[in-house]
Amino acid sequence: MITCRSLSGADLAQWRPLRQEALRLYPLAFLTTLEEELARADADVAKQLDAGFSYGAYDGDTLIGIAVLVTNKLARTRHRAMVATFYVTPSHHGSGTARMLMDHLKNVAVAQDVWQMELSVARSNPRALRFYESCGFWISGASPNTIVVDGAPETDDLMICLLPNAPEGATRR
User: Fold this and answer.
1) Which one, out of 39, 119, 134, 152, has a CA that is 20 to 30 A from the CA of 140?
2) What torsion do the CA atoms of 16, 17, 23, 25 make, to the nearest 10 degrees?
3) pTM: predicted TM-score of the whole model, two decimal places
4) Which residue ranges form the domains of the chain, and what is each CATH number?
């Protein structure tokens, strides 16, 4: 059975290999390189996990998906949250795990009075674009030259999803 929950430093031993797998298999999908991730100290990663922004999808006791939802504390932006990382291991692609993890993030956001979720996705990743669109996100703009890999710039699409608690008058598209 697939379950989703908040992660902490206690999940480090499962989080690190899954994060490294993501960076190895899909290097253009993340801002961090595998080399940068490998150089991070366990204590720094555990502290990040303890910050309360990281979530995981589990198949039984095995971590199979990770996501980061960064919320804002400033009065004028606390209605917004950024999906900063999103990954499900390939063995669970097409299983509904990604949808469950995204739904979990949406529920967390609503519980924190967030009503607009945002993310950036590589334009060169049509599968991810389709997935996010199926979750209610739409492209609101672009971020040219987001990353440069081997001298070649990559463009990200900026995507927005309004949650059910969005007020009347919020821009819907």
Assistant:
1) 152
2) -170
3) 0.95
4) 2-162 (3.40.630.30)
